[in-house]
């Protein structure tokens, strides 16, 4: 469908602050940016003519570093991003846990104690009071820190005798007891314990992430996901299927994590 956009402040992004009168698009592609007169002369007839009514228009944005599958996960899980206190987070966990099926983990995303009035951190003991049988894993907004309850820690084989891995931290209190907080490479042991996504589940969260990007003006990204969801090839094929075969058009540069370079070379990329 060929569309003429006009009557707004349209930035071309070719030069700093460069604007134009009109843009012509067809099937998601920009065909022309320039004067309205030239657009009508060279590209009419149009299926639609849309007045921006003075609004601002930009070409699609490209995120310079993100985790697209991680974004889809966050949107598909319990989301703490807007919660203002530790109490709110724990209440949401308590409500969610009643709906889980046997064997499921409760995984939440986005807690940020720096936004809370008290700044009080979540702990294993907080989560154990909600459930001492169902594994609970809550990721901080940065994804470099998580908090887990006792069942989750046990599944990962982490206890008071565990040593900090290189590049990671298993936090303990003054008495040497686990707090449930894991940082950086210490999280790897927990992630390896999580139930692995099926191919269909991986495609679903990828579609969810792309849809969210579209809704916020992103049409492309440099994304790092190839080392966190099983083998490299399976993750790559999920991207290939969703973007090319399911018509979820999204210009994606897949960052090759150093730990999958071996697999990457074997596939002769």
Automatic annotation (TrEMBL):
<dbReference type="GO" id="GO:0016810">
    <property type="term" value="F:hydrolase activity, acting on carbon-nitrogen (but not peptide) bonds"/>
</dbReference>
<dbReference type="InterPro" id="IPR013108">
    <property type="entry name" value="Amidohydro_3"/>
</dbReference>
<dbReference type="InterPro" id="IPR011059">
    <property type="entry name" value="Metal-dep_hydrolase_composite"/>
</dbReference>
<dbReference type="Pfam" id="PF07969">
    <property type="entry name" value="Amidohydro_3"/>
</dbReference>
<dbReference type="InterPro" id="IPR032466">
    <property type="entry name" value="Metal_Hydrolase"/>
</dbReference>
<protein>
    <recommendedName>
        <fullName>Amidohydrolase 3 domain-containing protein</fullName>
    </recommendedName>
</protein>
<feature type="domain" description="Amidohydrolase 3">
    <location>
        <begin position="48"/>
        <end position="262"/>
    </location>
</feature>
